[in-house]
Amino acid sequence: MARLPASPTQRIDPSRPIRFRYWGGEAEGVAGDTVASALYAAGVRVFSRSLKYHRPRGLYGLDGESANTFVAIDGVPNEAAETTLLRPGMAIAAQNVRGSPERDLYGILDRFDGLMPAGFYYRLFHRPARLWPFFQERLRAMAGVGVLQPSGSRERPGRFERYLNAEVAVVGGGPAGMAAALAAAEGGGRVCLFERRLHLGGHLDWRTRLVDGQPLHRRATELAARVAACPNIRVFTHAPVTGVWGENLVTGFLICPEGGIAREYHYECRARSVVVASGCTERPLVFEHNDRPGVMPATTAWRLAASYGVLPGRRAVFAGGDDSSLEAAIELAGYGVEVAAVADARAEGHDPELVAAIGEAGIRFLPGWTAGAARGTNRVTGVELRRIDGGRAEELRCDLLLANAGLQSLIGPLSTLKAQLGYCTRTGMFQPTRLPERAFVAGSMLGLRDVAAIEASGRLAGLEAAAAAGWDAESQIREARDAVRNAPGPAAGCFLACAPGIGRGAKAFVDFDEDGSYKNVVESAQQGFDVPELAKRFGGFGLGPGQYHVPGQNLAMIMAALAGTPLDQLSGTTVRPPLVPPRLATLAGPGLAVHKETPLHDAQAALGAIFRNAGAWHRARYFSTDLSCREEIRNVRANVGVLDSSPLGKFRIYGPDAQKALQRVYVSDMSKTKPGRCKYSAMCNDTGNLMDDGVVVEIGPGDYYFTTSSARAGATVEWFRYHTRHDGWEYQLVNLTDTLGSLNLAGPNARKVLAKITDADLSNAAFPYMGYREIVVGDGVPVRCLRLGFVGELSYELHAPSSYCGYLWDLIMAAGAEFGIRPFGLEAQSCLRAEKGHVIIGTESEQRVTLTDIGMGFLWDSKDTASKKVGAPALRHASGQTDRLKLVGLRIDQAERRPEDGDIVIDGTEVVGYLCTTRMSETLGWQYGLALITDRHAPEGGTVQIYSNPRGTPSVTHGTVVAPHFYDPEGARLRA
Amino acid sequence: MTFMLTCPICGRRELHEFLCGGQERGPRPPQEGLSAEAHFRYAQFRSIPPAPQPEWWYHGQGCGVWFKATRNPATNREERPGG
Ligand SMILES: [Zn+2]
Fold it and tell me: Which residues of A touch B58 (CB under 8 A)?
């Protein structure tokens, strides 16, 4: 379809065509088009099928008000066609459609409407319970919006500013919002202005009406230029606000332009004050078949013509309740739409200037009339207009029916901000009755219609907000108040709840997304769900992605009318966040997961390491595609291997009370540390669960170096300080985890390798097992060397400044070459330590087991009560208990299918525990397992059954209980 | 819901920088003769009265201090911030 001749309100560039695909065919839009405007211009009228009844649905709003216009774009479902800019080559498909949008195979459901009353899912299908899965599957196939493609592209966003700070945040970039921002900025503070649309200007953007000799859209451009020129205002367009929260936190997301840093990103703006100027939207008129394609708010048709140069239809009938519809009628007539009639639900109170203009244009004006029913199925073909008092009716032909029941305020941001709202019997809208601290409201949402009044209210709110943020603006505020007082006040609204004469069975929709009709509201009320908040849950009104926009005030007004409640007692529903739905990938997803890389990342990558995320880190897990790591394990046992253990927690604690702090958090007697010795101990929580283990070395008087597990490194400082917070002890705690990297050199040849790169005496006598030495390696790198044995072999942990770790790694690899050194990863380490029976916290321990249960009770100094050790009371309490889970070793019989980690241990039909870790060990020649099982089954020599059920085919394997130290139980290799 | 808290060292900061350590329940009770019930009552039980109460907060994303703040869980408002 050719576009209308160029006009100053247009936001498109028809000289730049954009080709795209829709429903398998080729179509063309122009630069500046949204998907919705391009589809509409291409002649698409049925955009989708409705959720429950598969009714044809067309374009409704242009701001993402309903799911009618959700489409799948390039395989990504639920994209709002109205807010997504057209890009070249897009493949667009309709949703919830079997067949094509125009001829849908499930469309027949519409005839069985009687079978689907409000709440029908719950009432019809919940019994018998065993049939529910069957119904659930069928219903899900029929209903629903879009199909998710899990293999969709994963985007990694670039850099963006997520956390903003401002003195004043302004929600809404219309005339009130812009005036507020400009006024607030006069105080010199930082102002952030958020607008959901692509352009500032609000409802002025497409209006050509002359006010003080200037077209309104020109006024909008002028204000926008002043805002842009103001150095302390930051403008965010295409940036819908998802909520405004306690102490004025504004959250939302920014939709980036094509080729931007991300598709969308989430922002949070902490502002001292906030101005909400989110404006109004048309309140949908509830009448029969008000969902037919071609029935839409007046603004939608107006904007299609003014902003996108698309002729919305040939012959229009208006059925409105606000002066804006009168203005729209005059404008659309000017664009070449034949306006058959303008019905207005208000009998009086119209803007005389507009009424006169309608008369001059030769348009029939019907005050006190409204729409009663739309004709047509896939397209509106006519309308039955009715008098408000139900007295008369008249049929008119049209292909465009522009209907509303006046305006309603967009109260979403106020609702999340917990402002008190009440129904105003003058404006006919919900309006704030009490605002939280430093929150202000301005513009048309206060019922103002006069543009000068709207700007004046914006200016006042902006000044008040800046003043609340600390600017002395007393005299300016006084002047602004006078300006508001002298401007026209709120206009009278429209109070029509729904069209007259719609019967019980009418298909008059209150909510398009959930197919909630007037009939369903009546049913909800009859079932006892007779207040809006209850009806909302029962009938699903307002639970769809369009949220409040379509059901809005109507649900409350209809329910009040049914119950005979006076209007001034009208109560609404709480608008829930997000006010505008962001993509899930905007809030979560792989692009937002941040992991640390160790100083040896590149060195290991060069050797073919396969990395996995482990806690806060990105770590080398395998060094080959053999995920059983046979070669890596064999080499550590037979030669020597090196592991990057840099994520290991590394800390220094010093001060006169450092030892007291250690006594508090460690279960052992920490007065028994010795210089040059590693003391192994563990930390428990208040329920006696193992939280952490590591070694403590005394490096000076009241000065200690200690290690924690990688997973606990981040919480260690918090843990120490929490458990000593009442004591007033004097100690300093320094987290050295990232400062120092660490390498674990392990295997029978470890000493030989290390000896080649240091002059330190490494003999067993000079540097025994569990020893600690500060040595110098290579060209003078200071290394803290700990002789430990987590993997069960002679090993040296080398802790060195992170910046030296690469050098150290190269040195070791070169020195170890003659001994066949090779790196090993986390998986090999996990197998090696499991063979040795060394536990990993969270793998062989859990919430139900204490330190004692997993065989580490020997660490606990049970006689010490004076230190008030964390976990000691629980350990004491649990020590006499029976029927507890214990950690045991299992020697698992050979079986066709080997049990896996997590398989359960059974005794007949009773579950007695589970396998924590199990591997087929080449070193041992049999499959071992570490299992937590009840103490009744824990004695060594007993047999247990292991039940495996991968992919639904169960099998049982037998195992014998043995001590959980399979490899070198005497520890001779560690001491070698 | 979100609010701000005042760290005695860093000043007023976003809630997400902090970790809540729960209601102030006094120092750890002496362990000599401590019954299991008394221990678990101290370690596990918390009440959230809709009135100002002293609480422990940890400034994990900041200076790493544990401090006491008096907050009303019903309004999320601090009393005598920083005091
Ligand atoms: Zn702090």
Answer: 718, 721-722
Listing DSSP states for A96-140 in one string gives S-SB-SSSBGGGGGGGGGGG--TTHHHHHHSSSGGGHHHHHHHHH
Do B1 and A245 count as a contact with CB atoms less than 8 A apart?
A: yes
- Residue corresponding to tokens 């469309």: A107
- Please give the structure tokens belonging to residue B47: 């009440």
- In chain A, pLDDT over 70 holds for what percent of residues? 93
CATH of A287-404 among 3.90.950.10, 3.30.70.330, 3.50.50.60, 1.20.1050.10: 3.50.50.60
Rounded mean pLDDT of A295-305? 97
**Angle (CA) A861 A867 A870, round 5°:** 75
Mean pLDDT of the A694-719 span: 96
CATH 3.60.110.10 fits A882-976, yes or no: no
Q: Is the pLDDT of residue A227 over 70?
A: yes
Rounded to an integer, what distance in angstroms lies between the CA atom of residue B54 and that of residue B83?
Answer: 11
> What's the N-to-C CA distance of chain A in angstroms?
87
H or E segment and range at residue A353: helix A352-360
Domain extent listing, chain A: 13-107, 161-280+409-486, 287-404, 598-647+739-833, 649-735, 882-976
Domain B1-23+50-83: what homologous superfamily? Folate-binding superfamily (3.30.2270.10)
Q: What is the CATH number of domain A161-280+409-486?
A: 3.50.50.60
Residues of B in contact with A725 (CB under 8 A): 21, 56, 66
Q: Would you kindly state where each structural domain of chain B is located, as residue ranges?
A: 1-23+50-83
- Strands annotated E in A520-667: 596-597, 610-614, 617-622, 641-644, 649-654
- Both tokens assigned to A305: 């013509």
Q: Is B60 on the interface with A (CB under 8 A)?
A: yes
Q: Which residues pair with A649 in a beta bridge?
A: A708
| Amino acid found at A707 | T
Residues A391-416 pLDDT 10s: 889 999 999 999 999 999 999 999 99
Phi then psi dihedrals of residue A554, to 5 deg: -60, -40
Nearest chain A residue (CA) to B29:
A868
Cβ atoms within 10 Å of B16's Cβ, excluding its own: 11
Closest chain A residue to the Cα of B5, Cα to Cα: A247
Q: How far apart are CA A205 and CA A303, in angstroms?
A: 9
Q: Cα dist. A262→A480, A591, A754, B38 in Å?
A: 41, 10, 49, 54
Residues 6+ apart with CB under 8 A from A277: A170, A171, A172, A174, A176, A177, A180, A441, A442, A443, A445, A458, A461
Tell me if domain A161-280+409-486 and domain A287-404 are identical in fold: yes
CATH architecture type of domain A598-647+739-833: 2-Layer Sandwich (3.30)
Query: What CATH class does A649-735 carry?
Result: alpha beta
The answer to whether residue A141 scores a pLDDT higher than 70 is no
Radius of gyration of chain B (CA): 14
- Predicted confidence at residue A125, as pLDDT, reads 47
ipTM exceeding the 0.90 mark: yes
> Which CATH number does A13-107 carry?
3.10.20.440
Question: Which of B2, B36, B58 has the CB atom closest to A246's CB atom?
Answer: B2
- Expressed in angstroms and rounded, the spacing between residue B64 Cα and the centre of ligand 1 is 6
Whether residue A721 and residue B39 make contact (CB cut-off 8 A), yes or no, is: no
- At A10, is the secondary structure helix, strand, or coil? coil
CB A284 within 8 A of CB A295: no
Distance from A545 to chain B by nearest Cα, in Å?
21
pLDDT tens profile A172-192: 999 999 999 999 999 999 999
Please state, as a whole number, how many other Cβ atoms lie within 10 Å of the Cβ of residue A228. Answer: 10
Cα(A945)–Cα(A774) distance, integer angstroms: 49
